[in-house]
Amino acid sequence: MANVEQLIKLKQGAKSWQQWRDNNGNVAIDFQAANLSGFSLQAVSLAKVNLANADLSNSELIAADLSSSDLTKAELINTCLSDANLSNSVLHNAYLIDADLSRANLIGADLRAAQCQRANLHGANLIGTSMRNSNLGRANLSKARLNRTNLSEANLVEAHGNEADFSQAILFDAELLNFFGYKANFYRVKAISSHFGKSYLAYASFVEAELERADFRWANLTQTNFSHSNLSQAKLRGAKLLSADLRQANLHGTNLRGADLTKADLREANLLEANIEEAVFRQTLLQGAIMPDGSKHG
Fold it and tell me: What's the angle, vertex CA 245, arms to CA 144 and CA 277, rounded to 5?
């Protein structure tokens, strides 16, 4: 349970709280299960504080310092955390539905199984975070940095990730149906068995990505870069791959039925045993590619 004396100090305002913390730097702060909903705590220092199970819904925590704090199962619904420092914090099973985390620093944070539906993470720094099993349905991840983030089994259905950086992220079995990822960077991403069906990924980059058994059915992949990627046994049925870069990509056993590869570049790609029925190859570059029957295109 929360320390009542400390809670009274905090509720006196950010300035009074900061003075008290400066004078009591070695005192452990315990706000476990505290009700802080609706409070204005802008730029407040709550670093290394126990806020597990606390209710911070509808609070103003703009530019607050919550680094290394324990927010396990905390309620942060509709909370404003823009420009906040949440680096190395624990947000495991936290509720961040409709929260504003724009430009927040979440480097190294633990967001496993966090509920982040419709959260605003525009420009947020999520480098190296753990977001396994998190729910980011319809969240705004535009221009967010998710380098090396673990998003395995995460839900990103209808999320917006335009110009987001997912380079070297882990997306095993993640759900990205109807994902908006214009110019998103998926360089060397590990997205085995992930689902990108009907997503908009025009001008995105999947260079050297691991995409075995990934599902891109009916996705818009116009001018998307898949060069040197592994798409073996992937599902690309009906995908729009106009002017896509698939140079030296591994498409062994990939389903390309009905895909539009007009002006795509498949030079030196491996199409062995790929299904290309009804696929469109208008003005497609195929020099040096291994065709489905094992022959090499001239």
Answer: 115
Q: What are phi and psi for residue 19, nearest 5 degrees?
A: -65, -40
pLDDT of 232-280, one tens digit each? 999 999 999 999 999 999 999 999 999 999 999 999 999 999 999 999 9
CA angle centred on 24, ends 20 and 29, rounded to 5°: 90
Cα 101 to Cα 77, 140, 142, 151, 194: the distances in Å are 11, 10, 12, 18, 26
Cα dihedral sign for 117, 201, 86, 173? Answer: positive
CA atoms of 269 and 251, how far apart (whole Å): 7
Cα–Cα distances in angstroms (integers) from residue 169 to residues 24, 69, 152, 207, 217, in the given order? 40, 24, 9, 13, 22
pTM of the predicted structure, to 2 decimals: 0.96
- Give pLDDT tens digits for 186-240: 999 999 999 999 999 999 999 999 999 999 999 999 999 999 999 999 999 999 9
